[in-house]
Amino acid sequence: MTFVLLYEQSWPPKETNLNTELFIARRIISGNKNRKHFSSTITGVVIFGISLSIAVMIASVAIVTGFKKEIRNKVIGFGSDIQVINYDSNLSYQTSPIPLNDTIVSMFSSIEGVRHVQPFAIKAGIVKTSSDIQGLVLKGIGEHFDWSFFDKSMKEGQHFNVTDSAYSNSIVISSWVARKLKMKVGDSFHMWFVDKRPRFRKFTISGIYETSLSEFDQTFAIVDIKHIQRLNDWTNNQVSGLELEVDNFNDLTDITWEARASAASFFFDDGSRLKVRNIVERYPQIFDWLKLQDINVIIIIVLMLVVAGFNMISGLLILILDRTYMIGVLKALGSPNLIIRKIFLYQSSYLILRGLLWGNLIGIALCFLQKKYELIRLNPENYYLTTVPINLNILHILLINAGAMLVIMMFLIIPSMLVSRISPARSIRFT
Hints:
Layout lengths: L19 H15 L3 H42 L2 E5 L11 E2 L2 H8 L4 E15 L4 E9 L6 H6 E4 L12 E5 H7 L6 E7 L3 E12 L4 H4 L2 E5 H7 L6 E2 L1 E6 L5 H13 L9 E5 H4 L1 H39 L1 H9 L4 H37 L6 H4 L10 H23 L7 H6 L2
Parallel strand pairs: 4-9, 6-8
Antiparallel strand pairs: 1-11, 1-12, 2-10, 3-4, 3-7, 3-11, 5-8, 7-8
Helix pairs in contact: 1-12, 2-10, 2-12, 2-14, 10-14, 12-14
């Protein structure tokens, strides 16, 4: 009866710029808002279901991408994106040196996408205190070392400065090692090295870091590179290798191949060559594990889209049945099935857009709260992180919304065909 009052002319209407289907859909929506009706409850349930699905998808993608980014940055912080070492070096911590000169440094720093080049040297030894013994791998760094990663992870103290003029006896260790040795910032200890003859060095703790990556925290400490060079009987121009930092991790493979092409034409006087390997090749087990997290996101997104789609289908069917009389009147006036289907698809689009709006607001708000206040904590022994990480990316959010809108609308094509099965004579007679 409501619809009949809207029109005092025969069907179809006269030529006008008015989108008739959209006009009728808007009147139905506004009519449901202004009065208590069964369909109002249904639309509320539909909007809630879509909102919940979108919020879950946004939060899931933000958490998983944030988790992958944090773990990746921690692994890169220890070993850089790309390492250049002597081809004769193996997987042990006893490395063969390469010469450090301007030719080699400029050869790799000139590669497009390489942000920073820094030398390093490693040496394994044993820490001996009055009550404890602990194996440790020293990573020697030079004056151009990028401390940004360790500064973010520093729990106590600070990093030390390296100069060309003098040795620095300072050392940066992990909180795990500090607890193991029962030491704090300012304490000193002796570290022993066994090669051709036993040697020892005395170090003073200047800083204590914590990354929650047990594999690295229990292994590495940072010292002046001159200690490693002297312990290995190297000159000041010999190092274990070079570390290359790249601007964009997504370009890592291309930059690695370019670095290998540059290294392939470089030979030392003794005939040895350079070997280039990136962080993914050095720690494949970690990055393969991170790739598995994508499967979890895909499963969650598919499940949420199916839930939202079937929720919308059930809502549309109820809306069509609730407007059976209106459909009968429209058909009696000569309206084709396609026009009537468009009316309900417009109405469904409105409900989907409202669901997307509320879902985005809820999902983004929850992510911001977690990122700022760290409401959900994690066990670092199991997850390598102390809190649930968040990585909000506008592109991810846009793709989720566009994909959800497209998939849900595709779900609605078949149930909207129910309109063609409604007989105008029966729907008007028995209403």
